[in-house]
Amino acid sequence: MSARLARIGFLAPIAVYLVLFFGYPLVSNITMAMREFTAASFYTGDAPFVGFENYAAVFGDPVFGTALLNTAVFTVASLAFQFAIGLALAVFFQRHFPLNGVLRSVLLLPWLLPLVVSGTVWRWIYDQEYGVLNQVLLSTGVIESEIPWLASTSVALTAVTVANIWVGIPFNMVILYGGLQGIPTQLYEAASLDGAGPWKRFTNITWPLLRPVSAVVLMLGLVYTLKVFDVIMVLTQGGPANATETLTTWAYSLSFGDLNFGAGAATGNLLIVLALVFAVLYLRSTRESAAAEQERS
Amino acid sequence: MVVRTRVRRAFRTVIALVIVGVLLFPLYWMVNASLQPSSALLETPPRWSPIGGTLDGYREAIQEQGRPLLNSIIIAVGTVTFTLAISVPAAYALSRFRLPGTGVLLFALLLVQMIPGIVMANSLYAVMNQMGILGTHVALILADSTLAVPFAVLILRAFMVTVPTELGEAAMVDGAGHGRILWSVILPVSRNAVITAGLFGFLFAWADFLFAVTLNSDDTIMPVTVGIYRFIGAHTANWNAVMATGVIASIPAAILIIAAQRYVAAGVTGGALKD
User: Fold this and answer.
1) ipTM for the assembly
2) Could you list the residue ranges that cross the membrane (chain A) (predicted)?
3) Is A43 touching B (CB cutoff 8 A)?
4) Which residues of chain A neighbour B10 with C-beta distances below 8 Å?
5) By the 8 A CB rule, do B229 and A138 touch?
6) Between chains, do A116 and B12 touch, taking CB under 8 Å as contact?
7) pLDDT tens digits for range A218-243
8) In the CATH scheme, what is the homologous superfamily, with its name and number, of domain B56-273?
9) Which residues of chain B carry a pLDDT beneath 50?
């Protein structure tokens, strides 16, 4: 009996913690989204129930469409480039050469820095007048006049996405590198003996065997990218004219800018649903590939 | 033959150095700007090297950001302490006891890491407002722990599962309880996992911006991330001081890379792939 109590004693803190710090906030976010919850509600405790009005208001807001599209573009472009560049680097670093280990770990630095710092650095690089990007492009004659990277509605989203890709490359590289290490070298040796070139070896061995790890990386990348807040806030705060507004930054400005916490909560819940949908798709795809594998063997 | 391999390998190192140079250029550019006099940053063409520069930026950074840096240290250390206090017993229990609901708990820990931070901030704001702790170190420590606890439990458990049960059983025969076994048998052998969990908890809290800017709306206990953010807004001309603050704020990550390389690698892959 006391042994049982001891066991409960070990698990109780984490159980209470999960309920208090994840369960309760999640539930309160759902109820908050169904109330007219404003700054005054915090003082008066008065937040009238409005059903799905907050959601209707969010969907009806013209910014919603912009934010949704920006989120999609930002996420897809970030994932595609982070993954492709990360994979190329992982394949490259699989070769043996002096300083390999040291250089590989130095490359992690952008991923470990506070995102606010990375954002700040990119803001300085993108600076219209004194930023190194414009200065180099001007002096090499690529552009004729300065590009307002962060102030123009047509390029701001690209600029923000590039900064985010830079942040994500090391993470992709490290995990994919780990996945590559798990592929038996005999397979490559056998393929070489059969006369398969590097590209053929990549498409026939590396790519299929790396699939599970690729799925994990893309899934985690998706979850991280949907959450991205710091980089956008530091670079553009969602502007100019909502050109870089994503669902995350919009939820922030609804709650903490307009003090419309109900609408902010509703937008946040949409983000959760989005993340969940992809999580389920991912789980299903891994299960299917596992099943296919079993059939094959 | 041997010479040819050596040349080829040296050539690869050169390529790798170029890759590192390109990818880390933004960081070089930060260090470069932090060491320039502020007037030099408004010159065209830019000064490519900080040689002959100044520490003015750092002086201003420490003057203006000293307090925020201290706040960040307090919050990060607090987060690590709180996180480990909750996670170590939990990981031990999840790795040793066959209790119903273990699977559900592990799945929950994986899932909660996917909740967007803005959702957490939104509802924690309401909760902490009720508790009257908004704008305190405690509020940020608790909020930052939500980033660190799930990760810590998962990585600690993944390690403790690999510790042979005989280690604890021997002590149990001698009459030691679970608390004693955890403290004097399991913890010492799990040192690396504990260090990894602690280091990442520190980094998560140190880098947090979202909670710091939302749960602390009047900036009473501004950590350095918010400090930099306000700094850019206020002094767009003093890029050297802004960049110097950025360099100082990057020191924990840099130390990690140098001093704790293997723990970092363990953290990156462990958190993502185990289970």
Assistant:
1) 0.87
2) 7-27, 72-93, 105-126, 209-226, 261-283
3) no
4) 97-98
5) no
6) no
7) 888 888 898 899 999 999 988 899 99
8) MetI-like (1.10.3720.10)
9) 271-275
